[in-house]
Write a structure and sequence with these properties.
Length: 212
């Protein structure tokens, strides 16, 4: 169908472009293949491949890896450097966090258990206490009986840190030494009384013999 009235026809692309742009459009070279081959050879992405715009005509005729390698060697194709993402500010902030900065209530996004699980705290504490007990046992500072008793007490959450455990060890050793000293004193008293009784019996026996 035809419409009445003035014609509204306009030239289609690219014929409606300005003369300079039209010239560039007609003389453009597709470098898709060359860019893909160069990216494969340089082991990088296609967006990192730079091609000399003044050599587009020559580069457009390269259709093999050998030719691409030669262009790379001649400097017509270059691998662009990676964009640097500075970590300096992050490192400064992490250093401040290690000192305790930026960790107040306003900076916390999770519960205390989510930030540092209670189970992890428990595991660390148990490993510290058990390591200490093992070290004391190997050094002969405690015997196997004290070791087992303290091991079970640690498992029962009796010690919150090494200091408390060490105090308990000293207390138990002092108690054992006291009991041992009392036993020795009792044995000494018993032996003295037995010796005294023996001497008395001996005297009585001697008197009985004399009276006969």
């Amino acid at each position: 169908r035809t419409r009445s009235g003035p014609s509204t026809f306009s030239p289609q692309f690219p014929f409606s472009l300005p003369p300079t742009t039209l010239f560039l459009y007609n003389n453009m070279v597709s470098l898709v293949l060359q860019k893909r081959l160069a990216a494969s050879i340089l082991k990088c992405g296609k967006r990192k491949v730079w091609m000399d715009p003044n050599e587009c005509g020559d580069l457009g005729g390269l259709n093999s890896r050998q030719n691409i390698r030669k262009a790379i060697k001649d400097g017509q194709i270059v691998k662009q450097p990676e964009t640097i993402h500075s970590r300096a500010r992050v490192q400064l902030r992490n250093e401040a966090k290690r000192k305790g900065r930026h960790t107040g209530h306003g900076k916390r996004r999770g519960t205390a258990n989510a930030r540092l699980p209670f189970k992890v705290i428990w595991m660390r504490r148990m490993r510290v206490l058990r390591r200490m007990l093992k070290k004391y046992r190997e050094a002969k500072k405690i015997d196997s009986h004290i070791y087992h008793e303290l091991y079970m007490l640690a498992k029962g959450n009796q010690f919150k840190n090494k200091r408390v455990l060490m105090e308990k060890i000293h207390q138990m050793k002092a108690e054992r030494n006291r009991v041992k000293a009392l036993e020795e004193q009792a044995m000494a008293r018993k032996s003295r009384s037995q010796a005294k009784k023996a001497r008395k019996d001996q005297k009585e026996a001697a008197k009985a013999e004399e009276s006969k």
